[in-house]
Write a structure and sequence with these properties.
2 helices, 24% helix, alpha+beta, 155 residues
Length: 155
């Protein structure tokens, strides 16, 4: 199964980064990969078991992933797994881990795995999707770093 890992230093605490990452009311303030991000009704905030729907922009424009939080440890770790069957994705799962880095910073490590569909085209889709996801994730985490570097860390 194709996978990727991206690590980015962030000039903010693990707790502050975690809060912003999973605040769906503010998600589009910094997230360069998405055009929409919402939690389904019944979930006022991100938590274990919460379901989100995130719609891509750019090369993934219009593709919406409906995911469920399967791990949620504030300030440390969150993980999701895909619930729906959008175009080109047979499966998708991701985790984001936070670790302290220095007195006022943290490291964010985003890991993902996926399986493309249709199966007969995986030999073509996997390399292309791997590159797009890796590049998009790098841009997304750099934008997160830049968001925190711009101003005072939000409460």
């Amino acid at each position: 199964m194709p996978s990727g890992v991206v690590t980015e230093p962030i000039p903010a605490s693990c707790e502050a980064v975690f809060r912003l990452l999973h605040d769906y009311k503010r998600r589009l303030d910094w997230d360069t990969l998405l055009s929409a991000a919402v939690l389904e009704s019944g979930f006022p905030e991100a938590a274990l078991g919460a379901v989100s729907v995130c719609t891509g922009r750019g090369p993934f424009g219009g593709i919406a992933l409906r995911t469920e939080y399967v791990a949620f440890q504030p300030g440390r770790l969150a993980a999701v797994r895909m619930l729906n069957a959008p175009p080109f994705f047979e499966s998708f799962a991701a985790s984001i881990r936070h670790s302290p880095a220095g007195p006022a910073g943290s490291l964010v490590t985003y890991r993902y795995t996926f399986q493309a569909r249709p199966r007969p085209l995986r030999f073509l889709l996997h390399p292309v999707m791997t590159r797009l996801l890796l590049d998009g994730t790098k841009r997304r985490l750099q934008a997160l770093r830049e968001w925190f570097a711009r101003g005072p860390v939000p409460a």
